[in-house]
Backbone:
């Protein structure tokens, strides 16, 4: 199974590649369903494709907005340029965009976005007959339904599913709430996520008196979905015939991308070597070290039931430094959050298993002893007998 990781900018792309993704998905400055990240200029796309291909990683470009008439004239040139620089696949939701891609960039694979809402084998077959090599299935499907689609579609048609990250309360993400409340169109990548806001009930003749719909001192979050986490269910996904496991999160941090890619990489590899064995505890535990809402398995095993929670994030860990290199027992660190001499940090190296490291000694760039690293991106040195790989993330528990 392919591991497909998000890349909202160059830093997140580098994290996805370094920490084990088989493929990444990203967007140009237009036509992608995430306007929040900086996304990629044409020059950055070319650099990204070159960097990814050198590591054997595929690049999928999202073109899954629902463009209006006035936007369409800008699409053909973008698709042609993408083909020329070597983009491996377009992720599309709109039939018109699909046809434009076939005319102007026929060498690029076509993947049908989850925005298309594919929930049955006939629709999957129809898209395949129209030229799609892959469909990204709707998140509302159960494992049994996915297996049913696999059984009744051509074997060469790949099935991609989301396995981790934020879930949308609206069916396959086709929502108008943001547009109504803020004027920001979710179907063109600019969702303000009003489903995450706190809502209270007001009675017409009692202005200013707020009645919570559910008992909660912060109000109620009746549309706020939990995050998805399928790390414990790689065997079931494989048995259902899934081709690609997709991590949500182009608007998330490079740290989020690194941790999720690393965890799912190890989970997939462990399953392939030990298909009957339970997953080592450290792998799912990694996903508790990123900022997340309460986890669920979505619709994979039936109705999610209580998918709402208090609206807050769980943030139990923070990155305090990134390793820039190690030589002769000295690790060179770049600070990200304040840390102190004597702290015990959790180290995650690219492709590695996390381990604990006590920072018994801290030094500045001139190797003068210091007790604390308080300044953003300041250069810090620490002595350690164990070599620390470049790009390693040093984390500290907030507990």
Residues:
């Amino acid at each position: 199974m392919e591991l497909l990781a998000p890349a909202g900018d160059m830093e997140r792309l580098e994290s996805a590649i370094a920490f084990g993704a088989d493929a990444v998905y990203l967007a140009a400055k237009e036509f992608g369903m995430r306007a929040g990240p900086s996304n990629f200029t044409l020059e950055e796309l070319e650099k990204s494709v070159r960097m990814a291909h050198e590591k054997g990683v595929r690049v999928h470009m999202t073109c899954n907005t629902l463009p209006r008439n006035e936007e369409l004239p800008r699409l053909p040139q973008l698709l042609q340029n993408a083909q020329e620089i070597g983009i491996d696949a377009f992720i599309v939701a709109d039939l018109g965009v699909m046809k434009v891609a076939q005319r102007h960039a026929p060498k690029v694979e076509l993947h049908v976005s989850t925005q298309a809402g594919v929930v049955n084998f006939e629709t999957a077959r129809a898209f395949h007959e129209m030229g799609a090599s892959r469909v990204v299935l709707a998140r509302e499907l159960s494992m049994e339904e996915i297996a049913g689609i696999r059984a009744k579609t051509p074997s060469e048609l790949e099935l991609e599913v989301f396995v981790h990250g934020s879930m949308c309360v609206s069916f396959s993400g086709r929502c108008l709430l943001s547009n109504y409340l803020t004027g920001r169109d979710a179907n063109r990548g600019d969702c303000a996520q009003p489903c995450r806001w706190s809502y209270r009930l007001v009675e017409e003749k009692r202005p200013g008196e707020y009645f919570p719909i559910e008992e909660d001192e912060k109000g109620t979050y009746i549309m706020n979905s939990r995050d998805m986490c399928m790390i414990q269910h790689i065997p079931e996904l494989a048995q259902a015939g899934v081709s690609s496991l997709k991590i949500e999160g182009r608007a998330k941090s490079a740290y989020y991308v690194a941790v999720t890619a690393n965890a799912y990489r190890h989970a997939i590899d462990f399953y392939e070597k030990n298909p009957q064995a339970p997953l080592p505890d450290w792998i799912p535990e990694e996903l508790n070290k990123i900022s997340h809402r309460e986890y669920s398995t979505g619709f994979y095993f039936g109705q999610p039931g209580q998918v709402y929670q208090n609206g807050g994030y769980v943030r139990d860990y923070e990155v305090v430094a990134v390793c820039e290199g190690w030589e002769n027992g000295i690790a060179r660190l770049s600070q990200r959050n304040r840390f102190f001499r004597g702290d015990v940090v959790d180290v995650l190296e690219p492709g590695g298993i996390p381990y604990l490291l006590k920072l018994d000694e801290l030094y500045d760039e001139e190797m003068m002893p210091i007790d604390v690293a308080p300044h953003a991106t300041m250069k810090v040195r620490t002595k350690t007998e164990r070599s620390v790989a470049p790009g390693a993330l040093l984390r500290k528990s907030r507990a």
The mean pLDDT is 90.
